[in-house]
Each structure stands twice: as structure tokens, then as C-alpha cells.
Amino acid sequence: MFTSFFYLLRHVGIPVSPTSFLRLQKALQEGLIISIDDFYTAARAILVKSERYFDLYDQVFAHHFEGAELEEPDEFELARVAQALLEEWLKNPKELAEALGVDEESLSKLTPEELLQYFLDRLKEQTGEHHGGSKWIGTGGTSPVGHSGFHPGGMRVGGVSRNKSAVKVAMDRRYRDYSQEGPLTQAQIGEALKRLRNMIPVGPRDEINIDETIYQTMKNAGEIEIVFDRSLKNRLKVILAIDNGGWSMDPYVEVVQTLFNHARAQFKELRTFFFHNTIYDNLWEDPARYRKPHKVDELVRLDPETRFIIVGDASMAPYELMATDGSIHIEERTFKPSHERLRFIAATFPYAVWLNPKMEEEWPYTRTVGMVRDIFPMFELTIDGLEKAVNYMMGKK
Amino acid sequence: MKVESTNGMFTGASKYVLDEELAKIVNISMALEMPLLLKGEPGTGKTMLAHAIAEALHMRLIVLNVKSSMKLVEALYQYDTLTRLNDSRFGDSSRNVSNIEDYIRMGRIGQSFVSDERVVLLIDEIDKADTDFQDDMLDVLDQMEFDIIEIDKTIRAKNRPVIVITSNAKKDLSDPFLGRCNFHHIAFPEPDMMRKIVTVHFPDISRDLLENSVKVFYGMREFRGVEKKPATRELINWIRALEADPDFKVKNLIKGDIPYLGVLFKKSPDYAVARGTVSRMRI
């Protein structure tokens, strides 16, 4: 039955659904699983749906089956599973009925109490039947396994020989590298940015426009007139302005680079500018910020539909933002305070956002973050934040 | 590996080295009649697995290459209005213009449903399509039927195909999707496994070349600053190149003289990095 295994998996945070657990029961019932090794692989394929949880699964598996005697599930545990089944049933009766192999209609006639009892009976019946099976697995798993050979470090990639027992394979923690705690990667950013697009017809006319074809054919008194259209391609214009100066941005260099690399691969029209702390008269096209200035005033010439993304921690001395001539760079003299410049950009590009690599809970501690937030909608530079920002930028204005 | 198929169980194919764990998962998915979702680095043989299953079990393989703009209905069937329009205008075809069914063409999923024998259906790179496509498609695969609206007909699968789905995405697919699949993540093969894979492709390879090329290959995968690491496919092509070169000597490889880097590193910045690292190694 392995109910406690199921709960342990859920307890450590692996999203295992009762339906998939039932499916595992079905596999056990059909005699597809005949050893603990089979159980290890089958249970993982059926229950765990992401490689990020493989490492956790390995740990739970090793913990649970290493030397453990398999116990009969008690009444209370069964009741909990039955309850979970009932909830699943309410959500999706069809799927569950299929997994159980029973008729949906005959079940739907029962009251919730009866249904609960029914599930309970089914579960007991299954433990009974599988007593032999689980014991088999229990002994198979425990006796030949020793404690030796535990490798706390490193990932065992792939796998050829499986003459190790499953518990030992699990103890190897081969999937450690895939667990969830990791920096933002290019692929993740790609996923988030994928939805940022603006489809525009380009290329050869090779798609048939049915409506127009019918209309033109009718107009032509039945002589067929086929009308072709261009297919749609993503032609969204994006400007990325990156704060690349000063020590305050240093910890975030890598994450910003990833974003930048990906954006470059993704968009046909991407312009990148650099600034330090905040924007004054000029943005810079070169990362060193002295060779190629681009006047902020000239941004008006660009398409207002352009998505303007600013990346920076928005952390600076308040005067840098508010004072006329606020720049900390001696050669950068100006008569307009930076916050006016920022407002100008926000007014020019209705789809502008500020991405902040600092986490949201840190924002209130820096005054200038609040000031910038008054001008631009601000999002965290994380997958969630990026997704929110994309939503915002694709929203109707 | 030889082509084997005992009692319809999958045990491997002629050009595919199967690890035991994966074989179990394939067999259990087939027994439970569930789609198998495969993830993993490019070049770990996700797509090859479907080919191998088809070969080993003597089934036809139908491949649906998912594209980003694809709509589900294209994978099911297509109503060829244009041909019908033309036929009705010119009337010189053998098709019956008043019978719409003559103009329905089955898409990949449709083909796998109407096939008289059981087939392997490979849905390649599902992550390219949007989530709606994925969820809708699973409904179809779950029910094993779909409707052709134009002729008001339901197509039911004659035989439940063996379904293999691959995905490259780092991000997880939607929950309802995952709920209906079995899942496996193929890790990059270890050197031992890689040697087997190479031997399958080059049965007469010399031991020297095998050992050293694999060793050098894994060394090169560790080069710093490389964006796209060479994968199995690159290694096999590289060995093919080495074997074809009459001037090549294995001992040069040990010395750090590595030819044909372009076969392994296909992006120009990567190639430059690899060149630099290799030349430094030689000194």
C-alpha cells in the first residue's frame, strides 16, 4: 500500500496527486512491479513529474526503505487517503473513476458518506490482496542493502549497471543538480519572455485568407480568386536599459547578463542601453558609458509601442534622483533632475517596466526604490516577477 | 545490442543503448497505457528512444513535430478546402465534390488513430507549443477520440498508440498535463555508457581510439565558458571524422592535438573558446 511513503513524499513538498498514487496501485496490482528496483523506477515515473524533485524523491526513498519494515497501514491512515480520494473525486470524477477502473455513473449515485466508505473498502481490499506483494518488496529492499557506498557529494549522471539495489541508487542522489534551488537560467528566462510578442505579418504571401477568398470569388461571379496573406511573425521592439555601474549592482551582474543574452536571442529589434544608478540626459550604447551616448530626448523618435525595460536596483542617494545636476559623475552635468527624465520616458513609452534584482521585501528599506516605483511599475527580477512584468507589458493600454 | 522483442516487452534496439531504468519505465507506461514524457539535455537520445521502441517492437513510427504556431486541429486532421474549391470549379478530379470526407486529410495524431495496427506516436518538443495546445491534446489522447466537425464524425482510435512525448523546457509543463503522463528525465550518459553507445555505432572501433576519444570528449565538455556543450551526436560525428582522416593518429589525441573542433563546437564563440583552451593545453 505504501500510504506512509505517499504521505512522506507529500510532506516533503513533492506534489503527488492521489490519482497518480492510485495508478501506482494499479501497476502493483497488475503485477508490473516485482522488485524494489522496479518499484523505485515505476513509482518515480508515475508519481514525480519533474526532475527538480528527483533528488528529494531519492532522499525520501532511501529514508523510507532503508532497513525499514513495511507496516500495514492503520485505519486512520486509510481514512485520510479515502478523504483525499473524495476530494479528488469532487474535482474530477471521470479521471478517478478511470484510474479505479469503475463506472463513473454508479459512483455518482452514492452520497458523500457512502462514497467515503466505498473508497475505504477499496483501499482495505487492496492492502489485503497485496500483503504478499508488499512483504516481498520489503524484504527484497532491506536484506541485501548495506550502509556502505554512500556518496554524499557529486551527481551520478546517467546510469548503466543497476546491480545496486534501488535504495543504494537512491542514496547516490544522482539528481541533486536538478533540484529547485538554483539561479535564474537562460532557459527559464526564455520561458518567461516567450509570451512577450507582437505578431506582425511578414515574409512571403503563403497563407490563404479564406474569408477574403470567398468574398473575391463571389465578386468574381464564381470564378475562383484565391487571396494569400503573409504569415505572422514576432516583431516586437524592445529597449533594454541596464544599470551596469557601481558596486550596488555587482552581485546581480550574472543574472542581468543572462537576461541580456536571452533577450538578444529572442527579439529581432532589441536595443540595449546602459546607465549608472539612474538616467540623466544620456543613455549609453557602450557598456563603458563614454563612447556612444544616446540623448534621452531623442527617444521620442522611436515607436511608442516599444517595450521599455529598465533593469537596476534603484538604490542610490536621494539627491541623485531629485536634485538638478544630481549625477555623481563630474562630466555629466545637466539642468534637469533625473526623476523628470524618468517621467519623460514613462510618458513616452506606455509599456515601460522597471525590473529590480533586489527582492521585493527589501524594497521599502531604500527610499529611492519607492520614488522610482511612483514612476514605473516595478517587478522583481525572478521568474515570477518577469512573468508579471510580461503580463503587464502585454496588457491593453 | 540486438533487435529484440520478447512478449511485446521493450528491451533495446540495434542502434540504441538502453539503460535498464528507462526500459522499465517504457514497459510500465505501455502496460498502463499512459503517455511517457521525456525530458533531458539535447543529445541524450529522447527522440531516438521512440525510434528504438518502434524498431524493437516492429511498429510503425509516426512523428508529430510540434511547432510554435501549431493548432491542435492540424495535428488531428485537415479539411482541404482549397482542393475542393478547385475541384468544384474545374470538375476534373476523381474525388466527389459533394462528399466532404474526400477532402479530409488526417494529421499525425489522426493517422495514429486510424492505423490498423498499433503504432508508436512520437510527439516531439511539445514545449514549443502553448499550454492550451498541450492540454487540449492530452484530452484527445486521454479519450482516444476526436470529432471532425465538418462531417460530424467521431474518429476513435482502433489501437491505442504507444505515446512518447519529449520536451526540452526547463520549466515544468502544466499540472493537468503532467497528471496524465508518466515522467522520466534522461541524464547525460556517463563515460561507461558512452563507450557502449560509441561501440554500437562503430562496431570495429579500435580500443585505443574509443578510450581516448571518449576521455577527451568528456574533458572538452568541462571547458569553461562554452555555451552549448557537445553531446552524443557531436561525439559520433567527430569519431566518424577521425576515422575518415588517413593522417590521424590516436597518440596525437593523447598529446592534446585535437582536430576537427568544428564538429564538436558549432557556435563560433564556443569554437573560439575551445580552440584557445586546446592550444593552451598543448603547451
Commentary on this structure:
The complex is a heterodimer of chains A (397) and B (283). Helix content of chain A is 45%, strand content 13%. Chain A has 17 helices and nine strands. Chain A has helices spanning 3-11, 18-29, 36-47, 54-65, 75-91, 93-100, 104-108, 112-129, 131-142, 166-171, 186-193, 210-219, 253-266, 318-322, 338-348, 367-375, 383-394, and strands at 199-208, 228-234, 237-243, 269-275, 282-284, 293-295, 307-311, 352-356, 378-380. Mean pLDDT of chain A is 71; it is low at 68-72, 127-164 and 179-183. A five-stranded parallel β-sheet of chain B has the order 4-7-10-3-11, with helices on both faces. Chain B has a two-stranded antiparallel ribbon with strand order 1-2. Chain B starts with a strand and ends with a helix. Chain B is of the alpha/beta class and 283 residues long. The radius of gyration of chain B is 23 Å and the shape is elongated. Chain B is 45% helix and 16% strand. Chain A binds chain B through residues 15, 17, 19-20, 23, 26-27, 30, 32-33, 37-38, 41-42, 44-46, 48-52, 54, 95, 156-162, 174-175, 178, 185, 187-188, 191, 208, 210, 213, 217, 222-224, 226, 231-232, 383, and chain B through 19-21, 24-25, 27-29, 31-32, 34, 36-37, 39, 69, 81-82, 85-86, 89, 169-172, 175, 178-179, 181-190, 192-193, 196.
